[in-house]
Design a protein that fits this description.
five-stranded mixed sheet; alpha/beta; 27 strands
Length: 661
Amino acid sequence: GYRTPVPGVMATGAGATRRAAAVRAVPRSARPTQARNTTPRPGRWQFWIDRGGTFTDVVAVEDESGCFETLKLLSENPESYDDAAVEGIRRVLGLCQNDPIPAHSVSCVKMGTTVATNALLERKGEAKLLFVCTKGFRDVLKIGYQNRPKIFDRDIRKPDVLYSECYECDERVSVDGEVLRELDEEAVRRDLAAFKHEGGYDCCAIALLHGYRHTSHEERVGAIARELGYSQVSVSHETVPLVKLVGRGDTTVVDAYLSPILRRYVDKVERELPEGCDLQFMQSNGGLTSSRAFRGKDAILSGPAGGIVACAKTASECGHPKIVTFDMGGTSTDVAHYDAALGYERTYESVVAGVRVRAPMMDIHTVASGGGSVCRFDGNRFRVGPQSAGADPGPCSYRKGGPLTITDCNVMCGKIVPELFPSVFGPDQNEPLDAEAVIRKFRDLADEASALAGREMTPQECAQGFLSVAVDQMALAIKKISVQRGYDVTRGYTLLCFGGAGGQHACLVAQSLGIAKVFVHPLSGVLSAYGMGLADVIALKERTVEVPLSDGTFKDCALGPLEQLEREALGAVREQRPDADEAAVSLIRRLMVRYAGTDTAMALGCARGRTAGEVARDFHEAHRGQFGFALEGREVIVDTATVEAVWAGGGFSPAAAAAAA
């Protein structure tokens, strides 16, 4: 690993230089090496960690002095350590690999992780998962919405469902709450016991028809499963209390599928930390939550969300209110749009790895072009990704026999100089990048391409060709979250680049899009980890409303649920942070509104004192701004009510480092 003491405040010009010089940093000579000290370093530290697919980034902050240190480790390096996050903490503290971490040395750990994301992508979650539904609906999640995203494909391969068996409860409740068929609790108890003791099932997801509104049957089935000893029971009205059985069922299944593997990882980290250590995790919605409240459905974008938080807070402070974030890591590139006047953009229904998820997430678009994306020539054209070399074996230059990647292209073109790159490779993690291996492989590839192209191509031309393909892929991803939504990025926007590979490609991407300004944070290589420290504690509650927007229904059917959700969100924050002052918790109320007969709801702020007419007017204006038209004669429906409780008491201000200096 390597570390660079840097200031915690983002600024430009002479002021930034003065502040950078003023920050009290630990000298590089104090950096732990392979032979580390047995005495822990003095001070009490916060650790902000982003465990990515290729690298794990650590930002450590000493509480008293405000001193920053950064550290970057391979996420998977089984020959050297079991877990990169815990190893990073030990290295900063100067401890040996198996030394216990002293309680007085760690004040808190805030972490984002791709454990859930990778488990979903690779289908490595809970192996035996039971899905419990209403009788007659066993195939509802397989059928889904019958979408055909690739309409001309002749060989259609649907993603596999996450559950391995389905159990149909003989029960039925109407949409109005009338019990059409009573739940046979004895049969449910007998059958669930058989699944557990004979089938070996230990996790179940329960989603009954109309269970989001009429919860009694789901509550009884969930109670029976817990009494029988199921270790993971996800119930739809607790997980996602929203209308639409398919999305609600899929999300409940995702939660049951990912929560056990996430819990095992959290327990593993907690065992290594001092007892009582304040361990928090980043959620997909951009807020922190306690390790006990961290759930599978909220962990899918845990790592990338930290980057958006850091970008939003640092860019606004430095006079860049409109930004396009460009996070190029080892496995993929994440891009997002942020306007300080609008706040975080979230999506409330997404498709991740072929699975529908109804949970609030940062609206991030991902493309498989990262520093570790595999570069290959298929006989006709150069291709980049979607395969990634990951951390093991990694790029060809990492001395593990890996394939050619975008990183190797930059080595070949001279954009990465091995002598200036951290010497963390080889069996003893003390060797530089292997440029000779990269040159040999590119020579072989150039010979193959030259023979087929009918003209001589140099290794440098081949490397530059792969980089051009990667830049085009990343620029297209940015157009999807900006130009295609009506945002003109050529006017007043800044490209905020971060991630380990972002700085090598930011200018090329900005040039391709016509963006005039590129903003590079001093912590750009570990900005997602930095965002963990800037993030607030957030509890987000939502509920289906489904009523026409009118003066007669607005107070009871729209404002009433908002009041109830406020109490629930405040309670959730208090449960996680008993020390939180209620006066310091801000409440953000929103209504998801759509036209009758459509399926596209838009989020609108609904502060106290708002009327139905004002909400309708705002909706027509927002719809016209995004889609170019408004249906002012069409009935408007209040789809969902949401309340976001935000406690900023535990967050770290970007300006705090300057004050500490």
